[in-house]
Amino acid sequence: xxxxxxxxxxxxxxxxxxxxxxxxxxxxxxxxxxxxxxxxxxxxxxxxxxxxxxxxxxxxxxxxxxxxxxxxxxxxxxxxxxxxxxxxxxx
Length: 91
Prior knowledge:
By secondary structure, this protein is α+β, with helices and mostly antiparallel strands. It is 42% helix and 11% strand.
């Protein structure tokens, strides 16, 4: 499934259009598959993905993306459905 988080292929954080990588907002084996199923993924440039201050090393950015992903999910589902699917709420 394509990402429902973005309509353009550019970094979700800084809008760069080069060196992009797909990031599943909810990681881990099971949640990665659920992120894929629901399109809860974004494009990130290398720096914002794997760089020293990127999502994999910056808890603030990670939590902000999780909150954005949950808000997007809740446009078409309930919060209870989100909790059931992902185990907890980030909002």
